[in-house]
Amino acid sequence: MKNNIKQLRKDKGLRQEDMAVLLNVSRQTIIAIENNKYNPTLELAMKMARLLDTTIEELFILE
Questions:
Q1: Distance CA 51, CA 61 (A)
Q2: Which of 37, 44, 50, 51 could form a disulfide with 32, with the two C-beta atoms 3.0–4.6 Å apart?
Q3: What is the rounded distance in angstroms from the CA atom of residue 39 to the CA atom of residue 60?
């Protein structure tokens, strides 16, 4: 599954560290998700969508 998180995060002016703090996860988790090496839990995906003012469907692309 691919994602648009990196671009949406940058559009919001957030650093990986900022996003990690706001979501209560490590920066390494954000890096792994952005690099398609880790799929977040549904709860984390929903929090990310809310933080980035978008939908889960816009964040993640099912191949």
A1: 18
A2: 37
A3: 10
